[in-house]
Amino acid sequence: MSIWTNRHQTPKILLSELPLQEFNPIQERYNERDAIIYALGVGVGQAPEDPFELGFVYEKELNILPTFNATLASPTAWLQDLKHSIDLTQLVALSHRLDVFNQLPSAGSVTSYVRVTHVYDRGIGKGAVIHWERTLVLNESGQIISRLHARALARGNGGFGGEPSPKRNDEFVPDRPSDYSVEWQTTKAQSLLYRQSGDLNPLHVDPEIASDAGFARPILHGLCTLGIVAFNLMKIARYSDTSQIRKISTRYAGIVYPGEKLLIEFWQEKEQWHFQCKACERNSIVLDGGTATLAGSYSSF
Predict the structure, then answer these.
(1) Which domain holds residue 148?
(2) I need a labelling partner for 101 at 20 to 30 A (CA). Which of 162, 188, 197, 299 fits?
(3) Where residue 29 sits, what CATH number does that domain have?
(4) pLDDT tens for residues 203-253?
């Protein structure tokens, strides 16, 4: 069922119909410079004397962070399409899971395919929860590189009469002291640099829009915080036989303001890792129930 909301008869699609919609694939060509800008946006390069860290920001034998995949050929047109009635400034990430199947080369061409899998109604004034997934394919080989599963809250879209959210079985960190911990200083300009990798949501740069959304100032991208965790996990595991991220997921339990110091805690259970991230000054958990699976190489899984 379509509804019409203005005098120009512009069709509006109910959120419950989003899983029925087909979205155009998005193509993007990227190179070493894009991968380096992404790594710098995450904050890599704070210790350039470390060969491991330098490897992500120097084109000589460049290493690619797996979370770079999440920024490529990112299709946001469907989120901004007026007929879906989604206010992008009121959209807040709830969780992400990135499954990595093959190594992304340092330069190439990719195509992404997005589909909305579920939309749940929290009720009037409580928003709607949108689930979608994005598959990234390397055009040169046809290989599926990764699949990103996303869950976001459209805070201004509740009460459309859709199905309520089911109860979730969320992951929790182990009830014991962490095996590793890292303090990580973000910069005040971090969201300005990270957004150069494609996420141009003004919530992360415009003080007025951030204030209207209920935040003291622009907030850091959730996927940027997840990229920080992924880099530090790979750095911890670099001397082991399993240092490549096969899967990483988290719930966004709070927000990060650029310039805050983060405390990242890791718990290791063989190839399976758990993590949690806090904003130190506010003692506020920002990533919770994080899990990651590591493997020796992408050819081994």
Answers:
(1) 15-295
(2) 197
(3) 3.10.129.10
(4) 999 999 999 989 999 999 999 999 999 999 999 998 766 668 999 999 999
